[in-house]
Structures are given as C-alpha cells and as structure tokens.
Amino acid sequence: QVQLVESGGGSVQAGGSLRLSCVASGAIYCMGWFRQDPGKEREGVATISGYTGTTYADFVKGRFTISRDRDNVKNTLYLQMNSLEPEDTAMYYCAASRTYRRLCPSSSLDYDYWGQGTQVTVSS
Fold first, then answer.
1. Is 93 exposed, middle or buried (0-12, 13-18, 19+ CB in 10 A)?
2. d(CA 7, CA 80)
3. What would the pLDDT profile of 52-73 be if each residue is shown by its tens digit?
4. Alpha carbon separation from 123 to 13, 26, 69 (Å, rounded)
5. What's the pLDDT at 1?
6. Cα radius of gyration (the chain)
7. How many angstroms separate the CA atoms of 30 and 61, rounded?
C-alpha cells in the first residue's frame, strides 16, 4: 500500500516562495503535484518520473520546480514555488502511480494514490 504525506503549505504574499514536500512509502514510478480550487476541477501542476523526466503546466513554467529524492525505503517529492501569484491559491495534492511511463501524465485520472492536501494561499 502506498501512503503519501504532504507538508509545507501556508500563506504568503504575491512574489513570495513556498516549498512543498511529500513523503511516499511503497514502490511507485510517476509522482506529481496537482491543485484544486473549490468548485473547479483538479489540475496538473508538475510531474516527475522515476528517471527524473519532468513535465510542467504552462501556467507554472519558469516559476515552479519539481524534484524527487529516492532511497531504498521511500520517495520524497518536492515542489519549489517561486514568484507566487494570487491565482496560485489552491489546495495542493501529491499523487503517485505505479505504472511505468516515459513521461508521466498530467491527468489526475492516471494517478492511484493521493495525499491529504496542503493549502497554499497567496495574497496580493
């Protein structure tokens, strides 16, 4: 069973930075960050494969960086968020999948395991 535990959310002013972390136990391949506002669909932010291939949504390119550390026991996923904007305000979720893909998908439907979410609030 895969378990994901997120941390690092909070409140920040526009232009500021936050770093999200997610510790995942169990064997997994693709990992990603998603976000969701109330009343909206969950959208992909960034993904990273087991071989560190990455994808980014257009709205975060150049501002956010996804990275991943692995050891024999766990994976730790990070999202460094710089130049934050009020539009980045959302609940952020860590997700994981055991399916191998050369580039990991950005649809939430392709991920089987989810963290509990961490709130990011950016004020203007």
1. buried
2. 12
3. 789 999 999 899 999 999 887 8
4. 5, 36, 31
5. 82
6. 13
7. 19
For residues 95 and 83, give the distance between their C-alpha atoms in angstroms, rounded to a whole number: 23
- The most confident of the ranges 69-73, 96-100, 101-105 is 96-100
Sequence-separated (6 or more) residues with CB below 8 Å from residue 120: 9, 10, 12, 18, 20, 35, 81, 84, 88, 89, 90, 91, 92
Q: Which residues in the chain belong to E strands, given as ranges?
A: 3-7, 10-13, 18-25, 30-36, 43-48, 54-56, 64-70, 74-81, 90-97, 113-114, 118-123
Q: Report CA torsion sign: 78, 97, 86, 119.
A: negative
In the predicted structure, residue 38 carries a pLDDT above the cut 90? no
Residue with tokens 């995942």: 24
What mean pLDDT is predicted for residues 111-115? 96
Which token pair is 54?
């990455």
Tokens of 25: 């136990």
